[in-house]
Structures are given as C-alpha cells and as structure tokens.
Amino acid sequence: MDELSLFGFSEPLARLGAFATIFLALTVLELAAPRLERAELAGALKSRRWFTNLSIVLLSSLALRLVFPLAAVGTALWAQEAQIGLFAHLALPGWLAGLIAFVVLDFVIWLEHLASHKWSLLWRIHQMHHADTGIDLTTALRFHPLEIVLSMVWKAAIIIALGAPPIAVLLFEIVLNGAAMFNHANLYLPPSVDRVLRLVIVTPDMHRTHHSTDRRETDSNYGFNFSFWDRLFATYTARPRRGERDIEVGLKEWRGKEPMQLWWSLLLPFRHRAR
Length: 275
Hints:
Layout lengths: L4 E2 L2 E2 H22 L10 H25 L3 H12 L11 H25 L1 H11 L14 H18 L3 H19 L6 H7 L6 H7 L4 H4 L9 H5 L29 H10 L4
Antiparallel strand pairs: 1-2
C-alpha cells in the first residue's frame, strides 16, 4: 500500500504538525482573549482538567492504533488500491470527488453526533465528553476510547462505500481535528465576526451552546465543521438562554470535581446513565 504525503510530509507528520500548530495557536489565543473567566479554566483546576483530557486523547489514540490500525487514511488507500466504492466507477475529476467526499464525511460525522445524543447506548459513552465542566480546546480531545473506535468504524464504512480519495480523507481528518479544537476553544470573537463565520462554520459560541446543562440546548448545534447541517435539519440554537457569559456547561448530574479525574471519566459509561 502506497504511503500518502501532503506538501512533501508523510501522513503522520502532516497530521501531527497540523495538530501541534493549531493547538499552540489556540492556547495562546485562549490566554489572550478568553470568552469565560471561571475557576475550571484557570490555575490548579485547569491543570487537572488538562491532565485528564490530554491523557484521554493519548489513551484513545493508543486504542485506535491497536484495534483499527488502518484508521481513516489507511482505509481510503486500501479502497483505492482495491478499486472499490462509488468513485471507482464514476469518471469524476479528482477535485470534484474529493470535494463531494469531504462534504459527505462532514455530514456523516454530524449524523453520528446526533445519534450519540438520541441512542441511549451511544449516549452512555458520549456523555464523558459532555461531563467536562470547563469547556476549552482540550475538551475537543476528550472522547472516550470506545467512542473513538466506534466513530472510526463508521467513518471507514462510509470511506469504503464512497471510494473516497485518500488525499481528501487526510484533509478532512486534519480539518475536523482543527475545527473541533477551534469551536471548543474558550475564545472570544467579536459578535460581527462570529455572525459571519457561523453562516458556514461552527464557532466557539455556537458549539458552547451544545455543551449547556440545559437539555434543550444540548440537543442542538451538533456540527463540527459546517454549521448549515443544523439549520437544514432544524437543530440550530442561536444563543443559550442564560447568555454567552452565564451559560452553565457540563452535565447537571456531575457538578463537582469528578469529571476532572481520569479514571472516573473513563469508567463513567459503565457507572451511570446521565439521562
């Protein structure tokens, strides 16, 4: 199987470089222009949250490597080599096939996120992500290893069905990861900028509403990249009822320091159903 590269960098280096650059940039921006000023987002509590959230992403990456070593890009390379999937039988220009694959993948991730809130079994796993009481860019990395593996299986099935171009899958993975960190960031954007951006992409204020303890707001704004899916399927909420600065994030059932603990978070799906 051929190795994929982007701008002369191998796929792992391209992804790691993009992740590190976006992570460092958003860390600086959060410090320079925070949206919320809360104990969970500063000092010792922030350090505890970051340790837990970063530990979770490392464990999730290890689990994915062990269970599904091909991952998304490897699956796309395999499908291309085997000449299977929709695009293998259509005479489409590469750029058009890539664009369609990117948009379809974004929709299926939106659909997966919706299912994670509507299907109780998936919610048991997904609730660990929502248990974080201090949303910032590290919350974007706080997904249970089980959820990461299940998400990859779903994504791989769509990639194979489409025969998605590997370069489009690589770009999608980089953009999805970067967009998730951006829209989870504790970052203030001027209202005029937020209003324009959210016409197309999900902004921090838009996604923070999804992390509200208010069930009506949690069950809205499911997008990660494009914002128009929520408008199209009537799951869009413009503003939280308590306002941008007074919003309460997390789960009502867990308002203490438990979500900041690594093992408590990992065992949450097996301990309690928060609905």
